[in-house]
Specification:
The protein is α/β, with parallel strands linked by helices. The strands form nine sheets. Strands 7, 8, 9, 10, 11, 12 and 13 form a seven-stranded mixed beta sheet that branches. The chain is 43% helix and 17% strand.
Length: 871
C-alpha cells in the first residue's frame, strides 16, 4: 500500500477524488433499485447566486444526510437545481446592460430582445454556484439537475395555474399590493422587510366647511399623499368629533384646485384609534392598506397620486408632479407651511416596509393583480399538528400553525419579463386560460408569475410530474428538507400545500431549519459590512473538510451561529490530527481490514477505547434521530482527539515499540477496528480525507461511500480492564491540573510522587509518566512538602524545588489573592445591598453569587499554595 504523505494537503486530494466519484456515477440514483429510498431536494439557489457560508451550512447538512444514507445501504437521490429568481435575475441583467450603456430601461430593448439577453447571461454566469457546490463536496445526482425555467418544468407551472384557475382558486382583482418602484412590480407580504426609519411627523390643520374657525389637526408621516385624501375619519364614539360626522372638510393640497375638488367628507369609522395622535385620520385609499379598507366600507373614491416609478403624478398638483415621492415629502411640508396649515414638525421613528431585493421603501398601491386562494390548507395545517411531518427544532411548529391559521390570498403576479408568463389570453372581451396559445388575434397577459409559484412545485415537478415516473414512485415523498426559517412561509408551507393538492400526500417527512450565521458582534453577514468571507477562499486555506467540520461544530440546532474563522482553522487542525494518527498507525505495519480485537490479548487501554467507542455509537444513533448535527460533530471530535489520539495512541506506543509484546497484536487490532468504524462515522462530515485514508490504509478496497454503516451494539470489551485504564487516565488528568495551577507545562524536569497505597505497577507508572509528559512518577512512603491532589492511584504530589523561584511565586500569589478578595468583596456588597439585589434580574443575582463563591474558592486554593512557600 502507498504511504501516507507526511502532511495532509487537501489540494492534492479533493479535486481528484470528486472527479473519480462523479465520473464513476457514484451519485446517480437508480429508481429500479430494491434498496430502501432516501431522497432530498436541494433548496434551489438563485441562478444569480454565488456560494455563501449559509449555502455551505445548508448543503453540508444535506450532504451529511445523503452520505450517511448511502452508508446505511439506501438508494439515495439528492436532486439539485437552480431557481430562475425573477426579480433578482432581471435586476442583475438590467444593471449590467445599463452599466454597458446599452439601455436606460428594459423598455429600450423590448421584451423579446431583453429575454434573449437574460438567457445569454444565464448561460454564461448561471452555473457558478453549482461548480462551487461541487468544490464543497456535495454528492448530488448532477445528471438530474433542474432549472425552474426548463421547458418541462415550465409546462408543470403553466398546468398548475390553469388547473387552479378552473377550480376557481385563481382570480384577478384590483387590490392594494406592496409595490416596488425600482423593480416596478407587486410583492408579496413575505418579500417585504420591516426596517426602523427615522423621519418626521407633521401636524397640519384642515378647515371644517360650514364651521367658522373650526379646524381639525391631523398628524401624518406622508404629507405628499395629502392630494390623494378622499376623506377624514374619526371614531364614531369620540365625543370631540362625533358631531362632525357627515360634515365636510377642505384638504389643503393641491392648493390650486377649486374648493369643490378639495371638499372631502368626515366619516365615522371604528378603525380610528381615539388615543393615538389627535384621534383624526387622513384617509388615502389609493396609498394605504388600512385606508383602502376604510374606503371600501364608506364607498370612497381612490385617487392615485404616485405612479409606478415612485414619482408624483399630475393629480398631486403643480408643485409635486414629477418629483420623487421622498423629495415630494419635504416639498409638501413646505407647501403646508406656506399655506399656514402646518402646526408643528417633530422627529418620529417608525417601522417602514422595504423591498427585500431592491432595498427601497415599498409603496402601497392599487393594482390589478392575479391572486390565489391557497389549496389544501387544512390538510397542510393538520399534517404538522398531528406530528406526521416533523420540524427540527420543534418551536417552528407554532410559528407555522399561526401563519396557516391566518392565511391571506397570495398575490402571484409580477410585472416583470423574466419568469413564467401567465397563461391567460385576451381578445376583445374574451378571456381564455390555457397552456398553449389560442391562436391569431389573441394577446397574452404581460405579467409573469411570482418566483415562488414555480418553486412551490419543486419536490415533485423535478421528478417528472405530471407523468407517473419511476422517480416519483421510488423517491416521493422525499425524506428530509433542509432550509432556513426565513422562508418557512415563502416556500415550506406552500410546498406542503402543493404536495397535498397534486400528489395527495406530504412532500417531505422531516424539515430541519438551520440557524442564521452572524459575525462575532451578532451582525448578519453581508458584503456591505465586509464581514462575509468567501467560502472558496476558506476551502483554499483550510480544505473543504476543514470548512465543513469546523462550521458544523459551531452550528447547534435552531440557534444563530457566531462565525469565527478560528473554528474553521480548528476543523483543519482536526483533519491534520486524524491524518497524523493514521500515518503513525501505518508506520507500525499494514492495517487489517478484518481486524477483531477479541481474538487477541489486550491492554486495559484497548478495552477502554472499545468501551468509549461503544458509548459513542449509541449516542450517535440518538443524535442522528434528533438531527443534532453539531453535537455529532463535537462527539466525533472529542473521541478522535481525546480518546484515540491523546489517550490510546500515547499508551499504545509501548506496544508498538516492542515487537515481542504479547499485547501488541491486540493493540494493533484495536487501532484498526476503531479506525475502520470512526472513518465511516466521520465520512458524512469529512468525505475527502476519510476516503483518502480508507483506501490508502487498506481498510477497504473500494470507496468508503458504500462501505456500510457500522452496526451499534456489537463491540466486546473487558469492563474490569477498562476501569483500570480509566483510573490511569484520571490520575494523569489530576496531575496535569495540579501543574497547571502553578503555570507549569509538561517537561522532563517534572517528577511526580505517589504516596500511600499505590494501586499501580511499575509499567503503569511508566505509562502514567508518558501521559503526564514528565520525567517520571515515583512511589514514596512519606509525603513531601509539595502540592498534592488525590487520585484513584493514591495521593499525587508535585515537588517544586528547582522549578519555581519561591520569592517570585510568593509575590504572584499574594497579588492574585488580593485581586480575588476585591472581587469577592465587590459581589458581596451587591448582594448585601437590598436596593441592588431587589431591582436586579434573578439571573444577574445568581451571577453575583457565582462570582462571589468562585472568588472565595480561589482564595482558599491560593492561600494553600502560598503556604508552601512561606512555611
Amino acid at each position: 500500500m502507498p504511504e501516507l504523505a507526511p502532511a495532509y494537503d487537501p489540494s492534492k486530494v479533493e479535486d481528484r477524488l470528486y472527479r473519480q466519484w462523479t465520473e464513476r456515477g457514484d451519485y446517480q440514483a437508480n429508481p429500479a433499485s430494491a434498496q430502501p429510498a432516501f431522497s432530498i431536494v436541494i433548496p434551489p439557489p438563485n441562478v444569480t447566486g454565488i456560494l455563501t457560508l449559509g449555502h455551505v451550512l445548508n448543503n453540508t447538512i444535506q450532504d451529511i444526510l445523503a452520505r450517511r444514507a448511502r452508508l446505511l445501504g439506501q438508494e439515495v437521490l439528492w436532486l439539485p437545481g437552480t431557481d430562475h429568481a425573477g426579480i433578482a435575475t432581471q435586476t442583475v441583467v438590467e444593471r449590467a446592460l445599463k452599466k454597458e450603456g446599452k439601455i436606460k430601461h428594459r423598455d429600450d430593448l423590448g421584451r423579446e430582445e431583453f429575454l434573449k439577453q437574460v438567457w445569454q447571461w444565464k448561460e454564461k454566469h448561471g452555473g457558478i454556484i453549482i461548480q462551487q457546490l461541487k468544490k464543497l463536496g456535495a454528492s448530488c445526482d448532477w445528471s438530474r439537475e433542474r432549472f425552474t425555467m426548463d421547458p418541462a418544468y415550465s409546462a408543470c407551472v403553466q398546468q398548475v395555474f390553469v388547473d387552479l384557475h378552473k377550480k376557481g382558486l385563481i382570480y384577478r382583482g384590483r387590490r392594494m399590493v406592496n409595490w416596488c418602484p425600482v423593480s416596478r412590480t407587486a410583492l408579496s407580504d413575505e418579500e417585504v422587510i420591516m426596517k426602523e426609519q427615522r423621519g418626521h411627523l407633521w401636524h397640519f390643520r384642515v378647515a371644517v366647511q360650514g364651521e367658522k374657525d373650526r379646524f381639525l389637526t391631523i398628524a401624518t408621516t406622508r404629507p405628499e399623499t395629502i392630494p390623494g385624501d378622499t376623506a377624514i375619519a374619526v371614531h364614531p364614539k369620540d365625543p370631540r368629533y362625533a358631531s362632525l360626522i357627515g360634515k365636510f372638510a377642505l384638504r389643503p393640497l393641491p392648493p390650486e384646485q377649486p374648493e369643490s375638488l378639495r371638499r372631502i367628507p368626515i366619516v365615522g369609522d371604528e378603525h380610528v384609534e381615539m388615543e393615538f395622535g389627535t384621534g383624526v385620520l387622513k384617509v388615502t385609499p389609493a396609498h394605504d392598506p388600512a385606508d383602502f379598507a376604510i374606503g371600501q366600507r364608506h364607498q370612497l373614491p381612490a385617487i392615485e397620486v404616485i405612479d409606478e416609478s415612485g414619482h408624483m403624478n399630475a393629480a398631486a398638483g403643480e408643485k409635486l408632479a414629477g418629483l420623487d415621492r421622498i423629495k415630494a415629502r419635504a416639498t409638501a411640508a413646505e407647501q403646508l407651511q406656506e399655506l399656514g396649515c402646518l402646526e408643528k414638525e417633530e422627529a418620529y421613528t417608525n417601522q417602514v416596509g422595504y423591498s427585500e431585493r431592491a432595498d427601497v421603501p415599498v409603496e402601497p398601491r392599487l393594482s390589478e393583480q392575479w391572486f390565489l386562494k391557497y389549496p389544501s390548507a387544512e390538510k397542510s395545517r393538520e399534517v404538522i399538528a398531528s406530528g406526521k411531518m416533523r420540524f427540527f427544532p420543534d418551536r417552528w411548529t407554532k410559528v407555522y400553525d399561526h401563519w396557516m391559521g391566518n392565511l391571506q390570498d397570495w398575490c402571484i403576479s409580477r410585472q416583470l419579463w423574466w419568469g413564467h408568463r401567465i397563461p391567460v389570453w385576451y381578445r376583445a372581451k374574451e378571456i381564455r386560460c390555457q397552456v398553449d396559445s389560442p391562436g391569431e388575434g389573441w394577446t397574452q397577459d404581460p405579467d409573469v408569475l411570482d418566483t415562488w409559484f414555480s418553486s412551490w412545485l419543486w419536490p415533485f415537478a423535478t421528478m417528472g410530474w405530471p407523468a407517473k415516473t419511476p422517480e416519483l414512485k421510488k423517491f416521493y415523498p422525499t425524506t428530509d428538507l433542509v432550509t432556513g426559517p426565513d422562508i418557512i412561509f415563502f416556500w415550506v408551507a406552500r410546498m406542503i400545500m402543493a404536495g397535498f393538492e397534486y400528489m395527495g400526500e406530504l412532500p417531505f417527512r422531516n424539515v430541519y431549519f438551520t440557524g442564521l450565521i452572524r459575525d462575532a458582534k451578532g451582525r448578519k453577514l453581508s458584503k456591505s459590512l465586509g464581514n462575509s468571507p468567501d467560502p472558496l477562499d476558506l476551502i483554499s486555506k483550510y480544505g473543504a473538510d476543514g470548512l465543513r467540520f469546523g462550521l458544523l461544530r459551531i452550528a447547534p440546532q435552531g440557534v444563530d451561529i457566531r462565525y469565527d474563522e478560528k473554528q474553521i482553522e480548528e476543523g483543519r487542525n482536526f483533519a491534520n490530527k486524524l491524518w497524523n494518527a493514521c500515518r503513525f498507525r501505518q508506520q507500525q505495519g499494514p492495517c487489517d481490514s478484518q481486524a477483531d480485537p477479541t481474538k487477541h490479548p489486550r491492554t486495559p487501554f484497548s478495552d477502554h477505547l472499545l468501551a468509549e467507542l461503544d458509548a459513542l455509537e449509541k449516542e450517535l444513533e440518538k443524535m442522528y434521530a434528533n438531527y443534532e448535527f453539531s453535537q455529532i460533530d463535537q462527539a466525533l471530535y472529542g473521541f478522535v482527539w481525546d480518546e484515540f489520539c491523546a489517550r490510546f495512541i500515547e499508551t499504545a506506543k509501548a506496544d508498538f515499540a516492542d515487537t515481542a509484546s504479547p499485547t501488541r497484536p491486540g493493540t494493533l487490532a484495536t487501532a484498526d477496528f476503531v479506525l475502520s468504524r470512526i472513518l465511516r462515522y466521520l465520512h458524512p462530515f469529512m468525505p475527502f480525507i476519510t476516503e483518502e485514508l480508507w483506501l490508502t490504509l487498506g481498510l477497504g478496497q473500494k470507496t468508503i461511500q458504500f462501505a456500510g454503516w457500522p452496526k451499534p451494539g456489537g463491540i466486546c470489551w473487558d469492563s474490569a480492564q477498562a476501569k483500570k485504564a480509566e483510573a490511569c487516565y484520571a490520575t494523569a488528568e489530576a496531575g496535569r491540573r495540579l501543574r497547571g495551577e502553578f503555570g507549569l507545562s509538561g517537561s522532563s524536569k517534572l517528577r511526580y510522587q505517589l504516596v500511600g497505597k499505590v494501586a499501580a505497577s511499575p509499567e503503569d507508572l511508566r505509562t502514567l509518566a508518558k501521559l503526564l509528559q514528565c520525567g517520571g512518577v515515583e512511589t514514596a512512603n512519606q509525603a513531601p512538602k509539595a502540592p498534592m491532589t488525590p487520585t484513584p492511584w493514591g495521593d499525587l504530589y508535585l515537588p517544586l524545588e528547582g522549578l519555581l523561584d519561591p520569592a517570585k511565586e510568593t509575590v504572584r500569589l499574594e497579588k492574585e489573592i488580593a485581586s480575588a478578595e476585591v472581587a469577592q468583596a465587590r459581589e458581596a456588597a451587591k448582594l448585601a445591598d437590598p436596593k441592588m439585589s431587589s431591582k436586579a434580574p434573578p439571573e444577574k443575582v445568581e451571577e453575583w453569587k457565582r462570582i462571589e463563591r468562585e472568588a472565595g474558592e480561589k482564595i482558599v486554593r491560593l492561600r494553600a499554595q502560598l503556604k508552601l512557600f512561606t512555611t
